[in-house]
TrEMBL record:
GO terms of molecular function: ATP binding; ATP hydrolysis activity; ATP-dependent protein folding chaperone; unfolded protein binding
Organism, scientific name: Buchnera aphidicola
Gene from which the chain derives: htpG
Protein name per its UniProtKB record: Chaperone protein HtpG
Reported function: Molecular chaperone. Has ATPase activity.
Keywords: ATP-binding, Chaperone, Cytoplasm, Nucleotide-binding, Stress response
B: annotated span: 337-552
Classification of source organism: Bacteria, Pseudomonadati, Pseudomonadota, Gammaproteobacteria, Enterobacterales
Amino acid sequence: MKQNKTQVYNFQSEVKQLLHLMIHSLYSNKEIFLRELISNSSDAIDKLRFSSISLPELYENDTDVKIQISINKAQKTLIISDNGIGMTKKDTIDNLGTIAKSGTKSFLQSLKKIKDKKNELIGEFGVGFYSSFIVSDKVSVRTRFAGKKPNEGILWESSGEGEYSITDIIKKTRGTEITLFLKKEEEEFLEIWRIKNIISKYSDHITVPVYIQNYDEKNKTYFWEQINKAKALWTLNKSSINDNEYKDFYKHITNDQNDPLIWSHNHVEGNQEYISLLYIPEKAAWDIWNRDNKHGLKLYVKRVYIMDNSQEFLPNYLRFIRGLIDSSDLPLNISREILQGNSVTENLKKALIKRSLNMLTKLAQENSEKYQIFWNQFGLVLKEGPAEDQENLNKIAHLLRFASLKNNSSEQKLSLKEYINNMNPKQDKIYYITSDSHESAKNSPHLELFKKNNIDVLLLSDRIDEWMMNYLIEFEGKKFQSISKEDLSLNKLTEEKKIKNNELPNEMIDFLKRSKKALGDKVKDVRLTYRLTETPCVLLSDSNEMTTQMAKLFSAAGQSVPELKYIFEINPNHALIQKICSIHNENEFNEWIKLLLDEALLAEKGNLENPHKFISRINKLLLI
């Protein structure tokens, strides 16, 4: 008889690092290995159900799908088997020998940095199979892909020490059987009560029945006992599901160790029939800003699993929403390509966006403390909403939170509704300033007028804020106004009418003319202002031109930026301006005006094109 050939392979380097971390320091809660393996088996059965829609022969005349667990105390082995889709030889190499998902290195770095919460990172990353080695000296996997011949089975074996072997075997049944050769100190996992407890805790609501092999002492026979409910929780009546069951189901479908902040479970009938179960997490996924971040809802059609991470039902700014949708109106063989152009998908998307925003609104209204937790984790993501979803702009605007001049904190807590309720009777706009940092924003000279008149200003320092404000035009009839841009409506708060009515001393009129001559085309205009109280001068952008912050965003993205020409405003009441006004030497006067412009540019932009020239000018004037 021909002996089966065994081939030995080396693990991918990242897998070696991962195995080392797990075996030596990773899991504090070792029982999670069973949750991960059960979850993988459940996924394999879901994939079989989906594939069999078009290829029913994959069932091989066995439609009774299940997961089975057996224990052999004599050999100290724990066996988890399923009759799901199974794996080919290529699948075993791709799935068990490498980590295909990009971003692996940053993931491993995250594990090394974070001592706690490592369990949830493993689950989120989808490499839970390797958790087997935390409790095992050796792991063997017998598998055969559905529809393949019995002699096309594969045996994968490893001790988790850098290499694994693959052998061609005969396997009569489809699916996968994982045998864990447990370490001596992990023999607690050979107790049936312990396994039942773990399954009840983590896997009660997976839609596949899980059986454990038990022994009947009376009849001296073995029998299989189902140990989970195996009912699709979302199909049950809401009144029959308690909060803990909702939370456990969330943890099952997301591998998140934290409870969700809030959830929404809805059965909808009528023109469209569907069930949605949406969750808002307590913490952001570690890779939420990665381009390949896997987000979206699990899609079921008539209770049949179709796909994970279906992004067609929610926009990108709601990518933190987790959960599922079960539609009765989509065909079972729906694909991602068909979903994108499907009218049913569009209608479902609109309904789910509304449901998600209502869920957030409810959280904000009923539990401000929890909403603040949400905002601190996902506020930056939600800020993408105004640009992406004009149809729901008003709802999104109500959910936004800001830091402000009066709140004296960098934490973003103030809603636009609260801002309007606390507006100064003199003001008719919502004022804001964008900057590189909160510290820079709160110390801007543009704020001096507002401090003097007791007017609050929103302090925006996130990179996305400038972009967002291009789409936030007004809120409840109040227009937004950047205080770093020209705005004639502010004149009623100042003494600008003196300038308009030419009620200026002759020396100031002369000073203005000399300043314009000294600066030439370096600025768009030079004018006097009474908006400043402590600063000699400031730069304003023209109301129709790009702001400094927007120019920085374009530049950082590698886009060409037109030259910015500012309006140079000078405070005639400032002692330094009055001193310069009395200088008769034209060269000295010009140096002072250019120095003031450089100072204003530095305050506005945070940098100068020629800092050495700026320093040289200061030194020169100090010697006069």
